[in-house]
Amino acid sequence: MCLMMLKTPWGWNLLNGLRTRNHGKKNSGKDHVFVLGKISWDFRRKNDDVSSWGTRFLELDQLQKSIKSLIERQPWHVNDIGIPHPTYFHPHLDDDIITWQLKIIRSNRTSLVSFAGAARPDAPQNIRSILINQCNNPGTNCRFLNCSSGGCDQPESVIELFMDSEFCLQPPGDSPTRKSVFDSLVSGCILVLFDPFTAYYQYPWHLPEDHSKYSVFIEQEEVRKMKVNIIEKLKKVPVREREDMRRYIVYELLPGLVYGDSNSQLEKFQDAFSITINNLLARVNKIE
């Protein structure tokens, strides 16, 4: 316990502060919501080694009944709620979303596939290097933006890439989820996923259960064993099917994946924040 206090004094300060307030004692914390801007594993270290990564904040007994909103949840923790990574687009008015939708749907997509990321040479089981090699093969109609050399530091470079692409590769990195998933969707790019934990098990309030409406799934092991050529597989997706998926992404998903600006006046659309708050309120109101 003392080691935990040394690692995360802010966590204990927060819990001690809640204990001193009447509302902090109600419902055993079931109606409390913690919003954490990092992934669940960063707060679920399994030991007391203060030199290791992360903390044990979410492992504390006092937090087990509270709701935790995170950009990457652990699906087997029922009180972990996944919320979208913020993107570069923060609309102020409904018209901002409509204008963006029209721009995206009319975008001239000259590349079949793209990947923005970096290799993981120290992680031999990671499939990124294989994808990069396939993407860089001559004549593949695939664009690779190397994030290890600063190529992804400018939002314009990333969004331009995704707006130019039919499909966007989203392999896991240091953890299953990627901000790039939402940058791709907001750019109208069809996701290519290799791990169900990247999106399918993460965001039930913001993404549909039928993931075929917005993504193509390819098993990591198939890639790792060189049993599939990603580019050739994606070429076989009919153009009409791609268009239907893109329309669904742009008109059905996009508004609920972005966060309006701090003074947003959205009326027609619910953004990611509104969807999250409405679902949280509905859940809290069911507490007996």
Automatic annotation (TrEMBL):
Protein's UniProt keywords contain Ribosomal protein: no
CC terms in the record's Gene Ontology section: Golgi membrane
Pfam families: Exostosin_GT47
Every Exostosin GT47 domain range: 25-233
Keyword annotations from UniProtKB, A to Z: Glycosyltransferase, Golgi apparatus, Signal-anchor, Transferase, Transmembrane
Membrane topology: Single-pass type II membrane protein
Domain of life: Eukaryota
Subcellular location, record wording: Golgi apparatus membrane
GO molecular function: glycosyltransferase activity
Family named by the database record: Belongs to the glycosyltransferase 47 family.
Name of the protein described by the UniProt record: Exostosin GT47 domain-containing protein
Annotated source species: Gossypium barbadense (Sea Island cotton)
